[in-house]
Each structure stands twice: as structure tokens, then as C-alpha cells.
Design brief:
401 residues; alpha/beta; Rossmann fold; 2 domains; 4-stranded parallel sheet
Length: 401
């Protein structure tokens, strides 16, 4: 079987994002199962992905020149900005034009790659990737499974006619949680399949023994609107004097460094330089988790957070917002973690419950470890393989090859 994974968002090379991790792990898993796997990306820079990728996996970068493909005319840019407030109402002409211009800049290269690789099935990672694939003549007879790595509201957005038509042409749309299915059904008529992310099971486990110095850890890219690390710092500031032996550690970075600088100023303003640490990106995630006592996750939303499930996998209790989609399903309040009310004060209240009780941390941590075991990789890859084989077998083109 010949599988093509397409990630055209331009940040596959050297990126530590969750979707990039899924792509590499999926490519490796199917290669080990005997599939021929290709990963096609469209990155400005050349190089390799940040996560391990087996040498048998064919990696094709449609760009790698350091220069953007596709220049957006000024009138189209102005039209897009003027109609942005109307986007939620379905006004999409200028947004569709921007997508079309950007996509056409590399679809000839993508079309040649598809024609050369002759995949049995194509998996676009983002909806823009799907639009590019459907513009390629060589992809016409190949079944497509669209992956969604976020809520349908964010992964698809307002369903323009162009997007709706592309989704309707897919063999199916994959979502990460059952609760995401209605959101897809509102946006297209494609079949929807629920398959979660695979979560590697760690070797180590947090034992929650009594100790003097304790840690709260957050692992995520630094990002103000979705990841909201500033709220966690404010929450910790409300507890710092009450719990003098606790520290807060962030692992992750941002592309521009702008938000990191804001966080550094916030830490200084709150006089927490000796208590709150921005540790940057780490390739020793399990060690960082094993050093912790609580995993704090103040995201406003998630698709299906690998970082959160990895923290659960080592036996860490987690705190997240009750209002955050996906987070409020993975964290089961009072069972494997705690859900907080919105805002720094609400998050601090949930943290306090865990910080003051080693026994509660141990109890919720043990439940979290059992919960994470549901997503053992082999089980998830079995689901994917069953789906893809069924789709390939039902494709008339494959029967005649």
C-alpha cells in the first residue's frame, strides 16, 4: 500500500508542533507495517523535521528555496481585510482568492509529485492542503481522507462553497473526538470517522512521594490566544506566597519571540524570577514531566493535546479550563485532574487543591495514567490501517491496477 501524507502549511521542517509530531509518528508506524510512505511538505527552508523520521520514509519539499511562492495582489489583500468582519457570516470571496493564489503557486509541483508517487490514498493534514490536492489532476482518482487536528470550528472555519465542495469529495473526514462530529456535519456531507491521536506510553511514572521542593510544568508552544501561558503565571502569582517551595516551569517557545518577551516582563513585574522559568524547547519531554508534580494546561481550546495525554501517561494530575473544548473532555474533573473556571483566579483555585494535597495528586495521577493507556499507539494505528485498507479496497482504480 502506498500512503501520501501532505502537510503544506509551511512549518513542517524543524517544527515541534503537535500536527508535525503526528505526521512523523504516523509515517514511521505505517512504514514499520510494510507500507510505502511519502511525506510531502511546502516549507521555505530545506532540512529535516524536528521529530525522528525513518530513512525509508520519502520526504519531498515542494519549496525549500527560502522564498515564498505566490504573491498576493494588493487589491486582494485590501478586499480580504475589509471583509474580515463578515467572514463568520460566510463572506469568503477574497479569502478564497488568497487561498487560490497561494495554492496555485505550488500545485504544479504537487501534481507532479502525486503523479510520480502514485499513492493509493492521500491524507491532507489541513483544509488548505485539501484545497491544493483537489486542484491537482493527478489526484482525481485517488481517495482522500481529510484529517482535522483541531475543533471543526477552527480547523474548517465558516464553510465557504469552495471548502464545502472539497470536503464533500473526500472519502471521509477524520476527527479526534466524538463531540467534533456534529461540527463537521454542519459544514459538509462527507462521512465522518473518529480516530484519536496515538499517545506513546512512557517508561517512567511519577510516584508523588512527599518532598520539599515541588514543580508545576507546562509544555506547549508559547502563544497568547490559545495556549495562554500568561494566565498561568498570574494564577501562580496568587499562590506563590502561600506555597514558597513550589516553582513553575514552561517548556516551549514561539516563532517570533514576541510573546516570550512579554512573559519575561510579566515574571519580572511580579518578582517571580526565582520561581518561574522559561526553559525553551526540550527534546527530553519525559524527563521534564517526571520532574513535575502537576501539569498545568491553561489553553482556551485544543484538538487532542498530545502534551496533555503524555503528562497523564506518566501519572501527572492536570489542571485545565472547564470552558476549553477537548481539554474539558480529556480532563475528567475530580477523576484524572481538575477543571477550573475561567480566569487566573479560577485556575489558581484548582491548582491550590492539588498543591495542598499530595494524596489527591497521587490519586488523580494514577487515574490519569490509566486513562492515557486507552490511546496506546498500536491500537490507534490499527484503527487507521483498517480504515485506509477499506477505503483503498473500495476504490475502482485500485481494483484495476
Amino acid at each position: 500500500m502506498n500512503l501520501l501524507l501532505f502537510m503544506g502549511n509551511g512549518v513542517f521542517i524543524d517544527s515541534f508542533g503537535g500536527a508535525e509530531k503526528v505526521a512523523c509518528e504516523m509515517a514511521n508506524a505505517f512504514t514499520r507495517r510494510g507500507w510505502s510512505v511519502s511525506v510531502v511538505c511546502n516549507d521555505l527552508k530545506s532540512g529535516r523535521p524536528a521529530y525522528p523520521l525513518l530513512p525509508e520514509v520519502r520526504l519531498i519539499n515542494l519549496n525549500g528555496t527560502g522564498k515564498k511562492l505566490g504573491v498576493i495582489p494588493r487589491p486582494v489583500k485590501i478586499g480580504r481585510e475589509l471583509t474580515r468582519p463578515l467572514r463568520p457570516l460566510g463572506v469568503s470571496y477574497f479569502f478564497d482568492r488568497v487561498n487560490e493564489i497561494r495554492l496555485r503557486a505550488f500545485t504544479d509541483r504537487l501534481d507532479r509529485a502525486i503523479d510520480d508517487l502514485k499513492p493509493d490514498v492521500i491524507l491532507p493534514f489541513f483544509v488548505d492542503d485539501l484545497l491544493a490536492v483537489t486542484m491537482c489532476p493527478s489526484a482525481g482518482p485517488v481517495p482522500i481522507v481529510q484529517m482535522l487536528h483541531d475543533t471543526p470550528e477552527n480547523a474548517i472555519g465558516p464553510p465557504s462553497p469552495v471548502i464545502r465542495s472539497a470536503l464533500d469529495k473526500t472519502a471521509c473526514v477524520q476527527v479526534l473526538l466524538e463531540s467534533f462530529v456534529p461540527g463537521v456535519q454542519k459544514r459538509c456531507s462527507a462521512r465522518t470517522v473518529v480516530i484519536p491521536n496515538a499517545v506513546p506510553q512512557p517508561a517512567g511514572q511519577v510516584l508523588h512521594e512527599k518532598k520539599r521542593a515541588c514543580r508545576i510544568v507546562n509544555i506547549a508552544r508559547l502563544e497568547p490566544k490559545q495556549k495562554q501561558q500568561h494566565l498561568l503565571i498570574d494564577a501562580f502569582a496568587l499562590l506563590a506566597n502561600e506555597f514558597p517551595d513550589w516553582t513553575l516551569h514552561f517548556y516551549g517557545n514561539d516563532q517570533t519571540n514576541k510573546y516570550r518577551l512579554q512573559l519575561e516582563k510579566q515574571i519580572c513585574r511580579l518578582e517571580l524570577q526565582k520561581r518561574v522559568f522559561l526553559a525553551g524547547v526540550t527534546n527530553r519531554v519525559e524527563d521534564a514531566l517526571l520532574s513535575a508534580d502537576i501539569f498545568a494546561f491553561p489553553s482556551s481550546r485544543e484538538g487532542f493535546s498530545l502534551a496533555l495525554l503524555e503528562a497523564m501517561g506518566v501519572g501527572l494530575p492536570s489542571v485545565g479550563f472547564r470552558s476549553a473544548p477537548s481539554v474539558n473532555e480529556l480532563i475528567r474533573d475530580g477523576e484524572n485532574g481538575l477543571l477550573a473556571e475561567d480566569g487566573a483566579a479560577g485556575f489558581a483555585a484548582a491548582l491550590r487543591r492539588l498543591m495542598e494535597s499530595n494524596e489527591l495528586r497521587r490519586q488523580l495521577g494514577e487515574n490519569a495514567r490509566a486513562f492515557a493507556a486507552r490511546y496506546v499507539p498500536e491500537r490507534v494505528w490499527d484503527q487507521w490501517e483498517t480504515l485506509l485498507k477499506r477505503i483503498i479496497a473500495g476504490n475502482p482504480r485500485h481494483d484495476t491496477d
